[in-house]
Write a structure and sequence with these properties.
Blueprint: E1 8-9, E2 13-16, H1 20-26, E3 64-71, E4 77-90, E5 95-102, H2 111-126, E6 130-136, H3 140-149, E7 152-163, E8 166-176, H4 177-183
Parallel strand pairs: 5-6
Antiparallel strand pairs: 1-2, 2-3, 3-4, 4-5, 6-8, 7-8
Helix pairs in contact: 2-3
């Protein structure tokens, strides 16, 4: 099915499709080096070639891809601070997966939780029954974000991939529509 990335709005953010320049600002640093997997955590500038084409990812049939922009006065769009993607549909669970990144200058402000809640409400209204959100062994920040939103572990993938010769375990977590609306009752009546 072909999805269109809608514009969503929260109290502090506007979520919408972005340009390559916006992705370059969000991915200023190589996020693979900031996840604390195998103890690696260092601010290394991103190779621009590594994100070429990110701005057209939402053109894929089963993908939605938002840039998170800070709101300025009123509802005008400010600086791009993060990215949120919904893709990898799991028909057996009637689920779609969320993945996210926030520029390190904006960590710890609750922006990704705010953006994910708005996106999940949209995805559940679109007809999905579950949302999947995963993290890799060592990535405590992503694990904590998922826990804050109510995700529960449902699948462990031992030795899912290798980093510097070390096997890394991936953890997939799930959140049902029912639990989401129980945890976020303000969204039920919208």
């Amino acid at each position: 099915m072909k999805y269109i990335t809608p514009t969503l709005e929260t109290k502090r953010l506007i979520l919408k499709r972005g340009s390559l320049e916006d992705f370059q600002k969000v991915y200023e640093y190589d996020f693979r080096r900031l996840r604390d997997i195998c103890g690696e955590f260092e601010f290394v500038k991103q190779d621009p070639a590594a994100i070429a084409g990110f701005e057209t990812y939402a053109d894929e049939d089963d993908a939605m891809d938002w840039i998170l922009y800070l709101k300025e006065s009123g509802a005008s769009v400010g600086a791009p601070i993060g990215n949120l993607t919904a893709d990898r549909i799991r028909p057996d669970l009637n689920a779609i997966e969320l993945a996210f990144n926030v520029h390190p200058h904006h960590w710890g402000n609750g922006y990704i939780v705010e953006a994910c809640i708005a996106a999940m409400d949209y995805l559940f209204r679109l007809g999905f029954d579950n949302i999947i959100c995963g993290y890799s062994e060592g990535n405590k920040k992503s694990k904590r974000v998922g826990e804050k939103m109510g995700f529960e572990l449902f699948e462990v993938k031992e030795n899912a991939w290798m980093k510097n010769g070390v096997p890394i375990t991936d953890y997939d977590c799930i959140l049902s529509k029912e639990k989401f609306y129980r945890l976020n009752p303000d969204y039920q009546n919208n």
